[in-house]
Design goal:
4 helices, five-stranded antiparallel sheet, mainly beta, elongated, four-stranded antiparallel sheet, 261 residues
Length: 261
């Protein structure tokens, strides 16, 4: 397989284009040019893929790092078996902390540490759910959306914006900001300074970066908090998804039990 550098999206998923090569000659995968295209699944079974008008393979970048085996039958005398060695562009290093299998209480620092192996991180997309609106019974209508850019000054600008527009925010978002240190009793400038110490981004070498959100879980006044996480880089690669309805195999959810007394 040879990467063409092509990229496309379909139903909000990103695909990378590859062409099958026989030496220096491209092999068309278009319908009518091949009798079979198949991929070996995780159980070691060959699964037939539908050929269409595309002469190339479009590979979903959501796949984990690994070697993917394909079989292409042109005719009875021409059969290709080729491995596509894929390295996922955005990786959790180590990802989301603390461990969501353990209950939390009091002041908690949530960190989201990732790496782009081909570019620089671009954005952390969080859908936050609270209380009964978590887990398999969650309702998107009740979520809190937080999109944080990958940059220290950019996150500071985000903080400035939410403080400036605080009055227009919903009550749920106001409670979230209060848990991060916002106070309705002080000036905006002080709230900006406080929040910047609790919501920030640290850039590291080799495309790595960490977003931190510090929350007083007592102020949240709930027994659960859940983060649905997606991370993008500047090359268009993505880890995770927030859309648990349309992409049940791709979304990443981290549900914490809060054990405040």
């Amino acid at each position: 397989w040879e990467a063409t550098g092509g990229e496309g999206t379909h139903e909000d998923k990103t695909y990378k284009e590859y062409r099958l090569m026989d030496g220096t000659t491209p092999v068309s995968l278009a319908e009518g040019s091949v009798k079979l295209i198949a991929q070996k699944d995780s159980d070691g079974k060959w699964v037939a893929l539908d050929a269409n008008t595309d002469t190339t393979l479009w590979f979903n970048e959501a796949h984990t790092t690994g070697s993917y085996q394909f079989l292409v039958v042109v005719d009875k005398d021409t059969i290709y078996q080729a491995n596509l060695n894929w390295v996922k562009a955005v990786l959790p290093v180590p990802g989301v902390a603390p461990d969501f299998t353990q209950s939390i209480s009091g002041d908690v620092s949530f960190t989201f540490a990732f790496q782009s192996t081909i570019s620089q991180l671009k954005e952390l997309e969080l859908d936050i759910y609270l209380g009964e609106n978590t887990g398999t019974g969650r309702d998107y209508a009740g979520h809190l959306g937080v999109n944080l850019p990958a940059g220290a000054t950019e996150v500071e600008a985000w903080v400035d914006s939410v403080v400036t527009n605080y009055a227009s925010l919903g009550e749920g978002f106001k409670t979230l900001l209060k848990a991060a240190g916002y106070s309705e009793e002080v000036e905006a400038s002080q709230n900006k300074e406080t929040l910047k110490g609790c919501i920030y981004y640290d850039a590291e070498a080799d495309g790595k970066g960490t977003w931190t959100i510090k929350l007083n879980t007592v102020i949240l006044n709930t027994d659960k908090i859940e983060f649905l996480v997606a991370v993008k880089d500047n090359a268009g690669a993505k880890w995770g998804d927030n859309n648990y309805i349309d992409y049940p195999d791709d979304y990443k959810a981290f549900l914490y039990d809060i054990a405040n007394e």
